[in-house]
Specification:
heterotetramer, A: alpha/beta, six-stranded mixed β-sheet, four-stranded antiparallel β-sheet, B: alpha+beta, 11 helices, binds adenosine-5'-triphosphate, binds magnesium ion
Chain lengths: 230, 302, 302, 230
């Protein structure tokens, strides 16, 4: 059963840039997929479409069995709650501490306080930020902010994880920690989609790799590797 | 929404105030300033209208009687006049009183007057009623009524003064209404302005919340609580300020301009504030509430 | 700063207005609203004081002469009185005029008066001057002066009325000053509020500029230009609005309440605006200028 | 002659975090230096101290022969104008287009308009963004924003270039393009300091590598390589 499905999706921005062009993708439940491609090839656009932050100019998108085009505006949260996202630019709430940022994801789905108090510290420990829980985003290094974003995406144990460049600000060791963590979570049944520029990781992990080039899928292989641009 | 979420929203509402201290202070300050000015003019206008009403009710109409009308007949006419509900006061001026008033004004001492006229009262025919009305615009009708009474020789009234006062009264009424209305509009505009800005600078935060899966209600609730708190504080502060200021001014004037006290009575604080308090609270909390609802709505559509 | 940079600053100032449209509109709106209310009350108060002054200058003092004083002596006294600069008008009331006025008020027709007194004028001694002053607070002194003049028998003045009017006058003066002052403070507070917010939300931009190596002057210039433009627009708009509104109201009242025209003269638009325009421009541009200087200063210290 | 000099520099944030501890660094004019280290090891703090965005709690910093502690506040721009910085989080002016963002750096130093009109397009072409000059930052992909930040750092041909993770959002090919560009500029005499997590690049380029660990310099070698954490 596919949890993510794009049919002939085209995304043209008001500026005229065509970020995605006739994209067809099907991702099965429980898959681990890398999305790679040169800068500006449409990877972030792809993520934002799945979140329905963007609406495609053409085509059909289905997430967790729900047709996004048919979804009423006041029902969008239903889909979003099935997804944990690590945004490329983190998108942390800048007036809240690390703890509150992560806890917020749980409050949104009305998790009882006693669970929040247990789960938030646990997930912060998982990403190695247990001693920064009181800090505000502006008091964190780039890599630390990125891991807060990851913690927030994981804390609700969502069906789908979308991670846009989750290791862009991390050193090799921490990058591997994050990837191994995502692999473990994937092993428990969560669908994981990772956008990355990290050639080494893609090549070593041998997962499905979807390669975009100027908004077009130029390759989609199981157990693939990073395709360098010519 | 669950109970725990309600509690969360309320706590967040208070926290937001601290997190965005600049905007909280700016919004609260704006509401305080606007409602203070609004209340100030409300007080001034109410008192001003009170003063005009006082003047209005002191314009007198003099009623003179036919020659040799008996005292009994005069009393009867007085009774008849008293039944009219526009009558404020009615006083009988005897011929002796009239002559005394007149000679006092014209001659320096009673002796001179007596020298001129002896004990003759040249105003023997000048017994009169002095009548004041409580609404000068009714004077014309009332004078007509008086003139129709048998036994009345002459009704002396200043149509001009009465008309002037009732024109001033109407004019001040319109002007007060216009000013209060303009102040209200301006207040609403300014308060809404700061609330809009305060929420707009947080649009990225709102967007993030929505992307994480928050419902509109969940995002909005703290903003609404925040708006209500700002509105509440923003209306209580100027009310308290106005109350003390009003008291201070009344007492100051009573001491400084003693002469004004007889001309002019201040609306007592209780009467003033029993209307001002609900109006002010309504505006403050209303704008806080609706302002945050309307402004958040704009940014929730993602 | 080079000429090209000056040009750049000016262009940036204008561009900033468009870039931060919400804040530009909010700030301009705030200034417009505040200065409009300020101007409105300025107009109301100036007219109100004008009206009181008009009443003040219509309170009359009657001066009666010693018995059988020659007409020449009376004229001489008149000349003497006219030299005083607090005198507004002076009118001679002959005994005939006085009797006519009196009998007209007391009797219905001249015939009745003649029936009572024949051709005798009971007020033969009542020639008088009716004097009005242009400042009721000087009445007491003036009356003393009159009483010291040889040939004057009696000075009839209402100390009470004069004192009341001069108390009212003083009171309204203080109150106007207080209200204008409060409005001014509130306006400055509110305008500064929006300007502060508008610049504060751009503090990250200012920080970036500083880190790139911009001087304080370079960063500030566009903000100051922006502040001045906002202040300028924000003061011209309410002035234009007020001008038309004032004209409209004057004409409306002239038509609707014809009677008021005689009681009360509106300050002509020219006189009103020749002080209001510079005040308003000064406040608007001043706050725009200093507000942006002060607020940017806070964020430039990096 | 050293253009960058830190003597016993300690930076303790108000939160209590010691981001740098007794750091001594000397960088000669014309050097190319990599600064590496695990996430949160103090690299960005190091850059911000050189820019005098931060003032050290202890120690002396000299940039281009100027003692930053002795510098009056209204003279700071003198130092900053000698430095071109690529910030880790880009710090673009979000209400200005790509062109205006780059041109701004030139306006700051009062470059005549005719030079600006020539140099800005040239440097945008250099980083491959000539056709995005009208876009606003929010309309760019992560990697595109990063290259605008680079263009802004380069346009004034500064004495010193500080680049904090300038390839974090770039694919391998573009990352190499950027590094080669910096290398070329360095060859012309500019001092270049690059903070990076890109192990491959560090290892291949064989430049001086300063390694930080929890705020302390643990290694500083010429023609060094990336030292993995244990
Ligand atoms: N809001 C927008 N308005 C207009 N154009 C946009 C917008 N967002 C992105 N684009 C353009 O669409 C294209 C794809 O952008 P996208 O962010 O999807 O790239 P990406 O693959 O994520 O790149 P990167 O690896 O650099 O993050 C780019 O050319 C970009 O300039
Ligand atoms: N403004 C701040 N207030 C308090 N602590 C801070 C602040 N900025 C950074 N820190 C802390 O200082 C330490 C060093 O931060 P810095 O940003 O220099 O790390 P970095 O080496 O750049 O890391 P990264 O590779 O993740 O960007 C971190 O532990 C961080 O949490
Ligand atoms: Mg991207
Ligand atoms: Mg960093």
């Amino acid at each position: 059963m596919s949890v993510i499905k794009m049919e002939n999706v085209t995304m043209k921005y008001p500026t005229g840039t065509v970020a995605l062009k006739d994209v067809n993708i099907e991702i099965e439940k429980g898959e681990f997929v890398f999305v790679v491609g040169s800068t500006g090839s449409g990877k972030t656009t792809f993520i934002e479409l799945l979140l329905r932050e963007l609406v495609p100019t053409k085509g059909r998108i289905e997430v967790a069995g729900i047709d996004l085009a048919r979804l009423k505006k006041n029902r969008i949260h239903k889909v979003r709650r099935k997804i944990g996202v690590v945004f490329q630019n983190f998108r942390l709430l800048k007036d809240r501490t690390v703890y509150e940022n992560v806890a917020f994801a749980q409050r949104v789905i009305e998790t009882p306080s006693r669970y929040i108090k247990r789960q938030v510290p646990a997930v912060l420990a998982l990403v190695g930020l247990e001693d920064k829980y009181k800090s505000y985003p502006r008091q964190l290094s780039g890599g630390e902010q990125q891991r807060v974003a990851l913690a927030r995406a994981l804390v609700n144990k969502p069906e789908i994880i979308l991670a846009d460049e989750p290791t862009g600000n991390l050193d090799p060791k921490h990058s591997w920690d994050v990837m191994n963590l995502l692999d473990e979570i994937n092993a428990k049944g969560t669908t994981v989609v990772v956008v990355t520029h990290n050639k080494e990781i893609v090549n070593v992990m041998k997962k499905r790799v979807i390669t975009l080039k100027k908004g077009v899928i130029v390759s989609d292989v199981q157990k693939g590797g990073y395709i360098d641009e010519d | 929404m669950k109970i725990s979420s309600v509690g969360y929203s309320v706590r967040q509402g208070f926290k937001n105030l601290r997190r965005n201290l600049l905007f909280s202070l700016a919004s609260t300050g704006t509401i305080i300033a606007c409602l203070f000015v609004f209340g100030l003019f409300y007080c001034v206008l109410v008192n001003f209208r009170g003063a005009i009403h006082k003047i209005e009710s002191s314009i007198s109409i003099a009623v003179f009687f036919k020659e040799d009308l008996s005292e009994e007949a005069i009393n009867l006419i007085g009774e008849q006049i008293k039944t009219r509900k526009e009558v404020n006061t009615i006083d009988y001026i005897s011929p002796e009183q009239a002559w005394e008033d007149f000679s006092e004004q014209t001659y320096d001492d009673p002796a001179a007057a007596r020298a001129a006229f002896g004990d003759d009262n040249p105003l023997a025919q000048s017994a009169s009623y002095m009548i004041t009305l409580n609404d000068s615009s009714k004077q014309a009708d009332f004078v007509q009524f008086l003139e129709s009474i048998e036994g009345i020789r002459k009704v002396s009234s200043s149509t001009y003064t009465a008309d002037s006062i009732s024109a001033i009264n109407a004019f001040v009424g319109y002007a007060s209404f216009g000013i209060i209305f303009i102040l209200l509009l301006v207040s609403i505009f300014l308060i809404n302005n700061t609330i809009t800005i305060g929420i707009t600078v947080r649009r990225e935060e709102i967007r993030i919340m929505k992307l994480i899966g928050a419902t509109n209600g969940f995002i909005r609730a703290p903003f609404i609580i925040e708006g209500i708190i700002i509105g509440l504080v923003g209306s209580i502060v100027p009310l308290v300020l106005l109350y003390y200021l009003y008291d201070l001014v009344i007492n100051y004037i009573a001491g400084r301009f003693t002469i004004l006290k007889s001309l002019f009575e201040f609306t007592p604080p209780f009467d003033m504030f029993k209307t001002l308090i609900p109006i002010t609270l309504l505006i403050g909390i209303g704008i806080g509430f609706f302002g945050s609802i309307i402004t958040t709505k704009k940014h929730l559509d993602i």
